[in-house]
Structure formats: structure tokens, C-alpha cells
Amino acid sequence: MAIASLAEIRSTRRLIVKIGSALLVERGQPRRTWLATLAEELAQLRAGGTEIIVVSSGAIALGAAKLGLEKGGRASLADAQAAASVGQVELARLWADALGAQGLLAAQMLVTLGDLEDRRRYLNAAATLGRLVETGAIPVVNENDSVATEEIRFGDNDRLAARVAQAAGAEAVLLLSDVNGLYDRNPKEPDAALIPRVEGVTPEIIAMASADSGSGLGSGGMLAKLQAARIAERAGIALAIVNGTHDKPISRALDAGIGTLFVAQGDESARKAWLSGRLAPAGVLTVDAGCTLALERGASLLAAGLTEVEGDFRRGDLVAIHGAKGERLGQGLVEYDAAECRAILGLREDEQAARLGYVPRAAVVHRDHMVRA
Ligand SMILES: Nc1ncnc2c1ncn2[C@@H]1O[C@H](COP(=O)(O)OP(=O)(O)O)[C@@H](O)[C@H]1O
Ligand SMILES: N[C@@H](CCC(=O)OP(=O)(O)O)C(=O)O
């Protein structure tokens, strides 16, 4: 479903909700009462059938206060990493308590840029997120700040949220911030006007983001949100920036329709196109007629339908999928190395475990990581 209004975000199947540092932390202290109202809203969304993944900042701000570090722990990378180590413990506890009060189970997931941008590791993160959500738990994702160095950091959780959305196959991202949305200039300027809807993040839109990052607690400012919007729109995912400062911020913003909606610029196939990029497939998997039919119906490629494996690829590589007559059926990210694929060719799941010596993965190419021709 293409999301055309803020209100429609309520009816998404899977939604990423990102909370910035300034919302969660005030003068070094967590905003527990506010968080309780947000958790209540997340529980309501969940009860209405929307699967929720939280991306939460706040570790550095919380940890810096505990350690008494200057500049909110952002004076140096070493400070930020130490602050994040201390603060993440508290952040996880906060979420476990807030969601627990609503009868929900919080699951902590700390990731780095590489986990979401390197194809091989991306599959692991995607599988864990998917499984967590299926179990009914609410993943609470943050960057693993204490180990990520400058070159391998997102640094801001806005882009992290957009990448998590891709990995989790979410339809929308809701960025809760301390402003109503994107303004045509720095919102502190008197004539600044809120932009309700953006169809494509153009250079003109990027130019609206002022270098002033408002709260001073976070890291990304508006520019990071626009970069996140660009990742999302190209992946066929809607993204909205709304004001999260009030109690029950989601209902307030979505009901009143106040915020900025970045409309997805592609469809589902655009999301999957990201998976394939412009890479040349590293191998070919040929499947039998039954499997061809199953793939046409949108199923995953299972080892039982595999008849031939060509090439020397590794888990996470892009492979082409061919039918029995050599016709191209599609392509996708393969869950096994080539040697393992050959070992389990044609085998059912129970036979695979015996051959591999470990519990097999759900598919050779999962439907979420496959683009049909
Ligand atoms: N064109 C703009 N529209 C809205 N906000 C802007 C704009 N340019 C700069 N900003 C600043 O960006 C801030 C939001 O970024 P940030 O403080 O990083 O948020 P968060 O902590 O929620 O991630 C706003 O408070 C605002 O001061
Ligand atoms: N991972 C960091 C957050 C970094 C960040 O981008 O913060 P923000 O701009 O407030 O979303 C932390 O937990 O402190």
C-alpha cells in the first residue's frame, strides 16, 4: 500500500518509530512520563495489527550525564563511546520498563553501519529483526556506538532508521523530533513555513536544512533526516517527520495531520532493487518446474526445488535464478555459500540438517530478498 497521508501511517503492516535524544533525555534525566505515553501508543498500534520496530537514541546523552562528561558526551569520539556504553544499559532498562508496563517485551539490538550496508551481514540483521517481530517482541535498535569508529558509524539514528526499515521490509518510518517537520528554512526564522509533503528529496529540499541542529543533544540535525528520507523514498518506503515533544505524540501528529510526509518514490520492486543494485550476479541457481510456479506465486526459493548451482559465490552475494529451460526468473541474495548450496541441492528441510550438520536456514533465497524478472 502506498502511503499518501500522515493518517495512513496508522494502518501500515510494519512501522519503524525513531526517537531522538532530545525527546528521551532532558538535562541528563530520562523523560519517563512522556515515554510511558509513547509506549501506550505503541501498544495500541501493535494491538491494531501494526508491527513496531523502535529505533532509539539517547545512550550518549544518558551516559554523559552519569559520567559527568562535558558537551553531552560529544566532546570527542572516545567520550561518546564511553558515554554510550554506560547510557545504553539505562536506555535498555527504560524501554524494557516502559514497554513492559504495556505488556510488551523489549528486545535490544545494537548494530553498526556495516551490519546494514554489507550484504552478507544485512541478511543476518534482516533475519533477526523479522524473527523478533514474529515473536511479538518489540525490537529497540540503536547504533553500537561503543565499538563503531568514525568510518564505520552512521553517527545519526535517522539514517539508521531508514536502513532498518529496508532490512525489516517496513512500509513506513516515523521520525519523532523536536520540530513539527521540515520547514522551508531554519524554523527559528520568523517566516519559516512547514512543508507538509515532499515528492522527492531534491537539492532544493536539501538546501532547506540549516546547519543548526536545534537540540544540541542529537547529532544529525535536519540534514540527517533528509538523507534518511532519500534512502527511504528510493527504497519505496514512506517517511514522516513529526513533533514528538508532547505526550502521546503519535496520535497528536497523525490525527491533526501535522508533520512532513516524504512520499515513497518507488514501489515494492524499488525496495528490492536496492538489494540487487547494479551488481552482476555471482552465480546461477536453476530450479525445477514446481519451484518456478512457487516463485511466481511469491514464495521463497527452497533447496528442494534446486536442480543446479553454477558459480563460486558466498552467502549474501547476488545470484540469478533460472527455470528448467534456462529462462530468467529473477535474482536475489543467497543465504548459503555455493558449496553449501550444492550440498543441499534437492533436499527437504529435514534432510538438509543431516547433510549440513546444523539447522538449515528457512530458504536458499528468501522472498524478501528476491526480485522477480
Ligand atoms: N529546515 C529545517 N526544518 C526543520 N528543522 C530544521 C531545519 N533546519 C534545521 N533544523 C533543526 O533541526 C533540528 C532537528 O534535528 P535534531 O536536533 O538532530 O533532532 P533529533 O534529536 O530529533 O534527531 C530542529 O530542532 C531544528 O532546529
Ligand atoms: N546512537 C546515539 C544517538 C545518535 C543520534 O543520532 O541521536 P539523535 O540525532 O538524537 O537521533 C545514542 O544513542 O546516543
Key structural traits:
single chain; 373 residues; alpha/beta; Carbamate kinase; Archaeosine Trna-guanine Transglycosylase, Chain: A, domain 4; eight-stranded mixed beta sheet; five-stranded mixed beta sheet; 39% helix; globular; binds adenosine-5'-diphosphate; binds ligand VHF; Glu_5kinase/COase_Synthase; EC 2.7.2.11
Can you walk through the features of this model?
The chain is α/β, with parallel strands linked by helices. The protein is built from 14 helices and 15 strands. It has helices spanning 21-24, 32-47, 59-67, 77-100, 113-117, 119-135, 157-168, 203-206, 221-234, 249-256, 268-276, 289-296, 338-344, 349-356; strands at residues 14-19, 25-26, 29-30, 51-56, 106-111, 138-143, 172-177, 197-198, 238-243, 260-262, 283-287, 306-311, 318-322, 328-333, 370-372. The strands form three sheets. Strands 5-6-4-1-7-9-10-8 form an eight-stranded mixed sheet, sandwiched between helices. Helix 7 runs parallel beside helix 9 (221-234). The longest helix is centred in the N-terminal third of the chain and has 24 residues, at 77-100. 47% of the residues are buried. The model has no long low-confidence stretch (mean pLDDT 90). Bound molecules: adenosine-5'-diphosphate and the ligand N[C@@H](CCC(=O)OP(=O)(O)O)C(=O)O. The ligand N[C@@H](CCC(=O)OP(=O)(O)O)C(=O)O is lined by residues 20-21, 57-61, 84, 142-143, 145, 156-157, 217-220.
Assign the CATH architecture of the largest domain.
Answer: 3-Layer(aba) Sandwich
CATH structural class of the largest domain? Alpha Beta
Bound molecules: adenosine-5'-diphosphate, ligand VHF
How would a textbook summarize the main sheet? 8 strands, mixed
Helix content: 25-40%
Shape: globular
Function: Catalyzes the transfer of a phosphate group to glutamate to form L-glutamate 5-phosphate.
GO biological process, one term: L-proline biosynthetic process
Pathway: Amino-acid biosynthesis; L-proline biosynthesis; L-glutamate 5-semialdehyde from L-glutamate: step 1/2
Binding site for substrate: 57, 145, 157
